Amino acid sequence: MDDKYYMQQALREARKAFDAGEVPVGAIVVLSDKIIGKGSNQVEMLNDCTAHAEMLALTAAFNYLGSKYLMEATLYVTLEPCLMCAGALYWSKIGRIVYAAKDEKNSYRRVAGATSPFHPKTKVEQGPCEEESLQLVKTFFEQRRK
Known about the structure:
The protein is α/β, with parallel strands linked by helices. Helix content is 45%, strand content 20%.
């Protein structure tokens, strides 16, 4: 299994959010080729501004492992993390972050600038499925504006 396969699993989570009327972002945490955490945005459903896909996927992974660190794990997320999620990812010491699409409006880069808010050993890269992720977000907001 490769990055594209795992990002497609994150997109599956994003579609769940879309169908629930949430901003369509999905995330999964993978360790040793096994998905150990999943999340889709649930901000509206839970009335909780911290219920981002990344946060929910991290919590599921921590609970699965019984550990607060994910040094050997990879997070796949359909949209570049916001600053709040970047902070949680920093503290998790996650080994790798792969995101599908940049988020020019709400990403961690908007506040952090050139400084990376992630743990120094965390590798961050843009991965596959960018167009599909962007189209899902675009369609969501077009429907909301009608």
